[in-house]
Amino acid sequence: MPDLILADLSAEIAANVRRALAEDIGGGDITAQLIPESRQAQARVITREAAVIAGSAWVDEVFRQIDPRVAVRWEVADGERVDADKLLFSLEGPARALLSGERSALNFLQTLSAVATRCRYYADLVEGTPVRLLDTRKTLPGLRLAQKYAVTCGGCHNHRIGLFDAFLIKENHIAACGGIAAAVATARRIAPGKPVEVEVEDLEELDQALNAGADIVMLDELSLEDMHIAVRRTAGRAKLEASGGINESNLRQIAETGVDYISLGTLTKDIKAVDLSMRLQL
């Protein structure tokens, strides 16, 4: 599946930000009202730790929606590695707007940068191999597209966006359809042109998926030896994706089997927010 690009996310970013501001500000920031409405301010946002940055468009949209008079000046770009204490961006505008937008803006940036940072770490582990590391649907509710965009900032790639853009036929689907061949044939009838992926648990099921004409075969927790066999047996008839039981200790070995893809829920699920700080000058 193609990777998300920022140009396609304008409406999604605006909707993400509207929800975040409604959640945080609600009927109005009563604490910010302590400051005179005319007071202007400047602010600087730094990272307290090394990271890969993602989410600048969400930050821009936060301040655009709160008060378009706020100027945001970026010192870094999405996908850029930064060291601790690096200045990421500066702000100038009404003090109330800067303070009201601070938490929502940093929430987006710290979360999406956490995804990009984790992805960069995993991408570096397989550097020099042709494998593509893919994300999964294990994302924060309401932030799937945002997190999947952040995945690309870290050098990894997008799997299907949801249940609507590609088939992923698993054990229960196969059982309900009466077998792999029947499941693939039904998928072709339901949505011609949509990618059809089949999850298999052994080499016998691999053969069935290949004979059925699957576009992608997911090798679910196969041994390294069986993955090597699967690559030779498939010989380019379908793309192969390794999944399940994969971590940083065995990732490189799996990449070197010759599979096309490795999918990892950890890219979006097991993240720790990047530590950011905003310093205000009135």
From TrEMBL:
Domain Quinolinate phosphoribosyl transferase C-terminal intervals: 115-279
Provide a Gene Ontology MF annotation, just one: nicotinate-nucleotide diphosphorylase (carboxylating) activity
Q: In which pathway does it act?
A: Cofactor biosynthesis; NAD(+) biosynthesis; nicotinate D-ribonucleotide from quinolinate: step 1/1
Asked whether the keyword Glycosyltransferase is assigned, the reply is yes
Q: Which Pfam families match?
A: QRPTase_C, QRPTase_N
Entry EC number(s):
2.4.2.19
What EC class does the entry list? transferase
What family does the Swiss-Prot or TrEMBL record give for this protein?
A: Belongs to the NadC/ModD family.
The UniProt function text for this chain reads:
Involved in the catabolism of quinolinic acid (QA).
Write the protein's name: nicotinate-nucleotide diphosphorylase (carboxylating)
Origin species, per record, is Azorhizophilus paspali
